[in-house]
Write a structure and sequence with these properties.
alpha/beta; six-stranded mixed β-sheet; globular; 496 residues; eight-stranded mixed β-sheet
Length: 496
C-alpha cells in the first residue's frame, strides 16, 4: 500500500491587514518529498503522526508537498494559485498511489475563495478523480463546509485545545485511510452547522470539555467512526463561519445524522456558557499582584498571533511597564526593528526604542522606553510543549531587554508563546518571576498549566478579542449568536 502525504495549512483572519503571500509560507515551511519526512519525523504534529503510523503499518510513504504559515490576513489570489498548483503537481508526480492523506486547517480564505480547503479538495478531485480515497485532518477551529465534506472521504478534527492530540489525529487518519482502501470501512459523513460563534475555549474546562465527552460516548457505538465538535474560527467574515459537528459512520447515514443532531442540541443548550467576561490588562496585573505564590501567568488573548493578530500589541506591555512590579517579564512581542537594533548595539548597551504598535492602530501605540540590552539570541530552539513537541522553532534575531523591573523579550518572527523555551533561550527561569506575561489564547496552557500558580486571561482591543461586537462583520450568515438573538436553528444534513 502506498499513500501520498501533503500539507497546506493556514488560519485566515480576514480582519487583518497583513496579506498572506508565498513569502510568508516560505518563512515557516515550504518542503518537498523527503524534506517533509526529515522535518516531521518524531514530531508530535499531524504529519508526524501520519509518518509514524505509516511506518508502524509498513505503508509506503509518498511525501509530496508541505507548507504552513502562522495565522494572518487574506491569502492573495496568486498565492492560492501557487498552492493549488504545487499540491496537484506534487501528487501527480508521486506515481501510483492507493490513497491520499492531507493535513489541512479548515479556516483558510483566499481572495475570491471563502473555502480554501474545499477548493483544494475539489481541484484535487478534478485531477485524480474519485476512485482514490482522501482523508484529511482539520484544526479544531475549522469552519467546516459542505464542499469539504463532499470532496473528502473523511475529515478528522483534533478534539483538544491546546491541540495536544495533533499526532494522534494524524495516526488515526492513516489508520482510517488504510481501512477505506482495504474495503473495511465505507465512510458516511454528516455535517451539522449551528448559527453560533464562540470565544476561544480550552477543552481543559467546561463547557467544551463536556461536549467532547459526549462525542466520545457516541464513538463507543459500533458503527460510529468519529464524532468531532469543531469550535470554528470566529475571526473570519465568511458565510460558513461558526460551530459545527461532523459525524462519520460506517455506512449508516441515519445514525450519522442522529449523532450530529444530538450533539448539536447540547452545544446549543450550552451556548451562553461560552461567553467570557475578561479583565483589562491593568485589572489583570492588579489581580496577579494580589495573589499568593508565583508565577502568575497573564495571557493576552486579544493579541494572539495564533489567531491572526499582529503580535506587536502594547496594551498589556504598557500596563506592565507602568506598574513596574518586581520580578515581572513579558515574552514575547514581535518587533524585528527593535531586535535588529539591539543586535547592532550589542549586550550591555542602553538604547531608546519604540516597541510594538507598528502593524496597525488597533493594538496600541508604540511604547517609548529606554532599555538595557541584557541578552541576545538567534531565536532558535526545539519546542518542548506537549503540543507539537520536537518541532524546530526559529523566531529570528531576538533580544532580552530590561526597563525598570520588567524583562521584555522581542523577536523577529510573529508567533504565539507555546512553552518556556523562548525564556530559557534568554537566560530566564519563568518559575522565578511573580508575573509572566505572554501572547496566546489557549495553546500556552499545554506547558504553563502545570507551571503557573494561576492563569489570568486579559482582553483589550485586538484582532483576537473575545468581544465579537467590535468586529464589522459584513458577510456572515445572520442571525448568529451571540451577535443576534437566535431562538433556535434548523438542522442541516450533508451526506456523502
Amino acid at each position: 500500500m502506498k499513500i501520498a502525504l501533503a500539507q497546506i495549512a493556514h488560519e485566515t483572519n480576514t480582519f487583518s491587514n497583513v496579506s498572506t503571500t508565498v513569502e510568508l509560507f516560505k518563512n515557516w515551511e515550504w518542503d518537498y518529498k523527503e524534506k517533509i519526512i526529515e522535518r516531521h519525523l518524531e514530531v508530535d504534529d499531524y504529519l508526524g503522526g501520519m509518518i509514524d503510523k505509516c511506518n508502524q503499518l509498513g505503508i509506503e510513504i509518498a511525501p509530496t508537498f508541505s507548507t504552513f504559515t502562522g495565522p494572518s490576513g487574506m491569502i492573495t489570489k496568486e498565492t492560492y494559485e501557487t498552492l493549488e498548483n504545487e499540491l496537484i503537481t506534487s501528487i501527480q508526480n508521486a506515481g501510483e498511489i492507493d490513497g491520499i492523506c492531507l493535513a489541512l486547517h479548515g479556516a483558510g480564505v483566499a481572495e475570491g475563495i471563502d473555502d480554501l480547503e474545499g477548493y483544494l479538495l475539489k481541484a484535487l478531485r478534478k485531477s485524480i478523480g474519485y476512485e482514490i480515497p482522501i482523508v484529511a485532518t482539520l484544526d479544531l477551529h475549522a469552519n467546516v463546509t459542505e464542499l469539504m465534506v463532499q470532496e473528502a472521504d473523511a475529515l478528522l478534527g483534533v478534539n483538544f485545545y491546546p491541540h495536544t492530540d495533533s499526532h494522534d489525529r494524524g495516526r488515526e487518519a492513516i489508520q482510517l485511510l488504510g481501512q477505506i482502501i482495504q474495503g473495511e470501512i465505507e465512510p458516511v459523513m454528516h455535517l451539522e452547522k449551528l448559527p453560533l460563534i464562540i470565544a476561544t475555549s480550552t477543552t481543559y474546562e467546561s463547557p467544551a470539555m463536556d461536549i467532547n465527552e459526549l462525542c466520545w460516548e457516541w464513538e463507543k457505538e459500533q458503527e460510529v467512526v468519529d464524532c468531532t465538535f469543531f469550535h470554528g474560527f470566529p475571526y473570519t467574515d465568511i458565510p460558513d463561519v461558526g460551530v459545527s459537528v461532523t459525524t462519520i459512520t460506517n455506512g449508516n447515514p441515519l445514525l450519522a445524522q442522529k449523532v450530529g443532531n444530538e450533539v448539536a442540541k447540547i452545544i446549543w443548550e450550552k451556548r451562553m456558557e461560552f461567553r467570557r467576561d475578561l479583565p483589562t490588562p491593568e485589572d489583570g496585573i492588579q489581580q496577579a499582584l494580589s495573589k499568593q505564590g508565583h508565577p502568575i501567568v497573564i495571557n493576552e488573548t486579544s493579541d494572539n498571533p495564533g489567531g491572526g493578530s499582529p503580535g506587536d500589541g502594547t496594551f498589556l506591555l504598557r500596563a506592565m511597564v507602568e506598574a513596574n512590579a518586581p520580578r515581572t517579564c513579558f515574552g514575547f512581542i514581535y518587533d524585528p526593528e527593535v531586535a535588529e537594533l539591539a543586535h547592532q548595539v550589542g549586550e550591555g548597551s542602553y538604547i531608546d526604542v519604540e516597541i510594538g504598535g507598528k502593524t496597525d492602530l488597533l493594538h496600541g501605540k508604540p511604547l517609548s522606553v529606554k532599555v538595557y540590552v541584557k541578552n541576545l539570541s538567534d531565536g532558535q530552539f526545539f519546542q518542548t510543549s506537549p503540543m507539537w513537541r520536537g518541532i524546530k522553532v526559529d523566531l529570528g534575531r531576538s533580544a532580552r531587554l530590561q526597563t525598570g523591573n520588567v524583562d521584555i523579550i522581542v523577536c523577529s518572527v510573529r508567533s504565539q508563546t507555546f512553552d518556556e523555551q523562548v525564556f530559557l533561550l534568554h537566560g530566564m527561569d519563568v518559575t522565578k518571576y511573580k508575573i509572566v506575561a505572554l501572547k496566546s489564547s489557549q495553546h500556552f496552557r499545554a506547558t504553563f498549566q502545570s507551571i503557573a500558580k494561576e492563569i489570568i486571561t486579559v482582553d483589550s482591543p485586538g484582532l483576537s478579542t473575545c468581544d465579537f461586537s467590535s468586529f464589522h462583520y459584513k458577510r456572515i450568515n445572520r442571525p448568529i449568536y451571540p451577535l443576534d438573538s437566535v431562538q433556535g436553528y434548523t438542522n442541516q444534513t450533508t451526506k456523502v
